[in-house]
What does this fold into?
Amino acid sequence: MRVTNRKLQKIFHVAIVLAVFLIGLNVGLFFPKVSNYLRQNPPQIIITEPKRDFGCVYPGVTLKHDFTIINGGKRSLYIKRIRTNCTCTQARIDNNVVPPKRKTKLRIATVASKYKTTINDFVALHSNDPITPIKMVYITGQVTPNIEASPSVVNFGIVEPWELPLTQKIVIYREPYGKATHDDLKIVEDSGRLFTNLTKLDEKRWELKVTLPKNHPFGFIIGKIWIENNSSENFKIEIPIMGKIISSVVIIPDEIFYGVIDPKKEIFQKIRIGGGKEIVTDVHVISKSPFLDGMLDVKIKKIAGDFQLFTTLNSHKLKQTKDLIEGCIYIKVKTKEGKEYTIGIPVLGIINSTVVNH
It folds into this structure.
């Protein structure tokens, strides 16, 4: 029998189709087994203690902890990526490939910020675990200053002029750590009208003396003292100063309170000076808190025998983003008896942050 070329081509095509079918059949029978094996024996990332709470720590301290990473599966675990939520937290792993039933260490280091009171960070591990492709570990804690004042406020109360000079004492407690020394504790700023002195009592205690001088202005005492660690942690605490020195000159009201301030508007307030036992003959402004310069206009007029102090707050010239305005106007008052008084009048207000932001 004679076989033509056309018949040979048909036989060849049939053979190829049959071969492809048989190969496909074998592959189909083989790969489900492989797929089942992979599904039943995947890598498994296990972290026995995924959270570390450091408790109360001091600002500036470097905190370290090692998490144990275990591969509980039957295939190698690959750590593809490590991600932190904060640049202050560093994370590295000893081995990116963890064989079955083996373990490695995830090493974490973070710095307790002096600007935050809490630590609430995480590290995310991206791996080839099909069940948990992203595994999280957490680090938490509370940041507490290593400097405390007791009492936390210097309050002179009501002071008669004859009581001046007057001194108040408070104790500063400091817990040293790291490379800081006790000599690093210092006064970095005060109101400028007080005498302050910081003396070391022992390894953990300092005594702060605050003195009202004899020539301190009458009226409200408003000030602050800042004490700082001049070291690597560089933490600072603020101690408010308050009280009132009584004057025989009547000032009504004895403070300027603007309430809630709309930065887009000018705000007016007036104060009456005089009307008491002593007759006031002259009043003039001698100074203002630096913060109020250029923002608060002050004029004094004599009306019906008394002096009146008119203030205009140009709130559109606000120099700060804080919610609270606080400062002082200092005036010199002369009386008919020839006496002179320097009196401080506090200026207070609350900025409407909603208006500022819009």
In short: Confidence is low (pLDDT under 50) at residues 178-182. The two ends are 99 Å apart (CA to CA). The chain has three domains: 45-143, 147-244, 247-358. The first strand starts at residue 45 and ends at 47.
